[in-house]
Amino acid sequence: MNIPDRLTDLLRRERSFFIAIHIDPDGDALGSSLALSDALVSLGKEVTLYSRDPVPEIYRYLPGWERVTNSISNPGAQISNLILIDCNEPDRTGLEDVKFRHSAVIDHHETMRDFGDIKWIEPSAPATGLMVFYLIRALNAGITSGMATNLYSAIAVDTGTFRYSNTTSEVLRVSSELVASGANPAYISKSLYETWSDRRFSLLISVLDTLEMQGDIAVMHVTQDMFRATGTAPEDTENFSNFPRMIKTVKVSVFLRELDSSSYKISMRSKGDVNVAGVAEAFGGGGHMNAAGCKIKGNLGAVKEALLKAIKSKMPDA
């Protein structure tokens, strides 16, 4: 990977960094940012790691997760060096009126934004965690067992634990190095997939009851009432959008999460050459060709109708 010299120069030269990740953080954002934070600290830097939303329970096995803060002691203060991880604009982090002297973006999403003094965006990279692995190596910071666990988790989450089409020989080679450095694949897989609470499983059952098939498009949703009835929270829906992909005939899986009575957060997953990133971008969102998201205002029926129309227009045979 072609790491910008300006990025490594910034990380070597400056002393203090503010790392921010996207709202509703996933394993790639968390694992990548935790690993980079540890590497910078090992080089004598001061690092604040910010997430607007709490770390989901499913990711609280990641070493150092408790260092993630969702508060800023002095919102009006200038942040010397802002680093965005796994996203490419401050709005995606929930930061408002941020002042900074330098800014850098480390991201792998296809939908790019014009932000950052330094931009390192690799849409072909399977995970931001893979990029951060090479960045840490370029900084000559040793990879500890904790960093290996975080990076392996980041890569595993964004490759579907090496099941998706973005699983390359490079991904497997790097993951092998991370295992040699202390990552435990069995422990990580168990933490990701076999530690659900009874409440979360009850929520999944409720969500699957909403499943509708629109040809080769699967649609399901979750409401605030369903969260209340099961004692769960939005973070408990992590990976729900992937379940309909198990159906052989499904090309696109759509998951709608009610934010309030007039808006929904959309997660889309697709197979093959159906570009859901293009769909998400049409609604102000973004992501990857086979995994993307956005927010849409409207009631459930109207949102479904708009989405289905947009998705069908992106189908290869449309």
Structure description:
The chain is α/β, with parallel strands linked by helices. Helix content is 35%, strand content 21%. It contains 10 helices and 11 strands. Strand 8 and strand 9 form a beta hairpin. Helix 2 packs antiparallel against helix 4 and helix 3 packs antiparallel against helix 4. The longest helix is centred in the first third of the chain and has 16 residues. It is globular. The two termini are 36 Å apart.
Features:
318 residues; alpha/beta; 6-stranded mixed β-sheet; 35% helix
Instruction: Give, in order, the helices and strands.
Output: HEHEEEEHHHHHEEHEEHEEH
Molecular shape: globular
Relative helix content: 25-40%
Record the strand order, biggest sheet.
6-7-8-9-11-10
Task: Please give the count of helices.
Answer: 10
Task: Report low-confidence residues grouped into runs of 5 or more.
Answer: none
Question: What is the terminal-to-terminal distance?
Answer: 36 Å
Query: What's the overall average pLDDT, rounded?
Result: 93
User: Main β-sheet: number of strands, strand sense, barrel status?
Assistant: 6 strands, mixed
Q: Strands, helices and their partners?
A:
Layout: H1 5-13, E1 16-21, H2 27-42, E2 46-50, E3 78-85, E4 99-107, E5 118-121, H3 128-138, H4 145-158, H5 169-180, H6 185-193, H7 198-208, E6 212-214, E7 217-222, H8 224-230, E8 252-260, E9 263-270, H9 276-282, E10 286-288, E11 291-297, H10 300-314
Parallel strand pairs: 1-2, 1-3, 3-4, 4-5, 7-8
Antiparallel strand pairs: 6-7, 8-9, 9-11, 10-11
Helix pairs in contact: 2-3, 2-4, 3-4, 4-5, 9-10
